[in-house]
Write a structure and sequence with these properties.
Blueprint: E1 2-6, H1 9-26, E2 31-34, H2 41-54, E3 62-65, E4 67-69, H3 80-92, E5 99-100, H4 109-122, E6 127-130, E7 152-155, H5 158-164, E8 177-180, H6 183-187, E9 192-196, H7 202-210, E10 229-234
Helix pairs in contact: 1-2, 2-3
The structure holds fructose -6-phosphate (F6R).
Fructose -6-phosphate is lined by residues 35-39, 66-67, 131-133, 137-139.
Length: 246
């Protein structure tokens, strides 16, 4: 695993954005694995700004999202489908037909997970962007999720519901279930970038970079087994690390 510690959120976002751009420039038909949450917003802004300046063409890329709340519907302003349109797809001119996300209104959850696994098989990801939860979750894989899980439907933990309630009017409005790629699906990407910003993530980053055991109690730990994973953090998220490589 490679570690990059940058001075600020903006620098972290720029460096991660340049890695995504390099992937798209190397292959205009690249498959991008994308995350939602507050962490990648700066990266997405970087891509949109770069496109405005240089006209980078995204019409050939395919975008595959990690996860989606169950039951909100794609037009709900807190659905991840809506988030992606707002923060990335509109700015890059990416059409709906180029994007994949779990169908949160699917009638049969099991079938939906199988459908999504087939999408992942059809479109092997060149690069996967990840954030990390303060408890080490990646996507909606909470501590205890077996590492061999592919796409599955999960009951969200109280902690995650509380963390995510800042985006809803009240904690009661946060969905209780979600669909998510599993750890095994995430590991299937050729390259992975995991981003973290701020001191609230420092303990999770310490465990990710310096932890000794790889167990489902800390889901992000599995990334240490990936052949091409880069941890990109700002100073706050790196604040508990013993050694920093820049
Ligand atoms: C979002 C996702 C989540 C977030 C994580 C960190 O698609 O998969 O695992 O990456 O909860 O969220 P932020 O970036 O809001 O701190």
């Amino acid at each position: 695993m490679k570690l990059l510690v940058l001075d600020s959120y903006e620098e972290m976002s720029r460096v991660a954005g340049e890695a995504v751009l390099a992937t798209v420039k190397a292959n205009p038909h690249a498959v991008l694995g994308l995350a939602t949450g507050s962490t990648p917003i700066g990266l997405y802004e970087h891509l949109i700004e770069e496109k405005k300046k240089n006209g980078t063409d995204y019409t050939g890329v395919t975008c595959i999202n990690l996860d989606e709340y169950a039951g909100l519907g794609e037009d709900h302003d807190q659905s991840y489908a809506y988030f992606m349109k707002k923060h990335l797809f509109l700015g890059l001119g990416i059409e709906k037909g180029q994007t994949y996300i779990e169908n949160d209104l699917a009638e049969n959850g099991e079938e939906e997970c199988l459908r999504y696994d087939a999408v992942l098989e059809k479109y092997p990801r060149d690069i996967q962007i990840l954030g990390i939860g303060s408890n080490g979750h990646i996507a909606f894989n909470e501590p205890g999720t077996p590492f061999d899980k592919t796409t599955h439907r999960v009951a969200l933990t109280e902690g995650t519901i509380r963390d995510n309630s800042r985006f809803f009017r009240s904690v009661d409005e946060v969905p209780k279930y979600a669909y998510t790629m599993g750890p095994k699906s995430i590991m299937g990407s050729k390259k992975i970038l995991i981003l973290a910003s701020g001191e609230g993530k420092a303990k999770a980053i310490q465990e990710l970079v310096e932890g000794t055991e790889i167990t489902p109690d800390f889901p992000a730990g599995i990334l240490r087994n990936h052949p091409d994973c880069t941890v990109i953090v700002d100073k706050g998220a790196a604040s508990l690390l013993q050694e920093r490589c820049v």
